[in-house]
Amino acid sequence: MNRERGVSSLGMVLLLLVLGSLLLQGVNRQEASFASRVATQSQALQRQAVLQSAMEWGRMQPWSIQQAVQCRRYITQDAVVCLRLLSINFVLLIAHHEGGSLWRQGIVSEGNLEFLAHGWSDFCPLKDQALCQIP
Q1: Does the pLDDT at position 84 exceed 60?
Q2: Quick one: CA dihedral 97, 47, 119, 61, positive or negative?
Q3: Is residue 4 scored above 70 in pLDDT?
Q4: So what's the pLDDT on residue 9?
Q5: Most buried residue, 9, 20, 53, 127, by most Cβ within 10 Å?
Q6: pLDDT value of residue 112
Q7: C-alpha to C-alpha distance for 26 and 24, rounded to whole angstroms
Q8: What is the percent of the chain where pLDDT is above 90?
Q9: How far apart are the first and last CA of the chain?
């Protein structure tokens, strides 16, 4: 009789061990999934910060209003910023870094560039998508 109780107790311990192991594996997979998401979001936030920094840097550059397209490299973050004249008085500033882009619309007023306060966008603001690409 005592022998049967020992076997059933051992069986219960093994069952608890298996269930605990399965539970830990599930928690480990979930933690790995969350860690991957956090890393992806962190990289996206870093890329967005670089883009915004490059856009602001490009906004402050002395651009010529004579050339249709001109580009400069934002060396500190390895981003590219381009200014595209779309018409006589309308321009588009494009910042590009690691597959992401930001755009900012502006106008030419009395020979000076003025970027619109609410003219920035994280999607192409033009109907012709080709004009939003870095040359």
Answers
A1: yes
A2: negative
A3: no
A4: 83
A5: 53
A6: 87
A7: 5
A8: 62
A9: 85
Backbone angles phi, psi at 121, to 5 degrees: -155, 150
> What does the radius of gyration of the chain's CA atoms come to, in whole angstroms?
28
Q: What is the DSSP letter of 135?
A: -
Strands 69-74 and 79-85: antiparallel
Tokens at residue 40, please? 């992806």
Q: For residues 109 and 101, what is the distance between their CA atoms, to the nearest angstrom?
A: 26
What is the reported pTM? 0.74
Distance between CA atoms of residues 70 and 82, nearest Å: 6
Q: Which two tokens stand for residue 89?
A: 């008085």
**What amino acid is encoded at 77 in this protein?**
Q
Amino acid at site 71? C
Candidates 45, 40, 76; CA nearest to 58 is 76
User: How long, in residues, is the chain?
Assistant: 135
The token duo for 105 is 């619309």
Q: What is residue 117's predicted lDDT score, i.e. its pLDDT?
A: 86
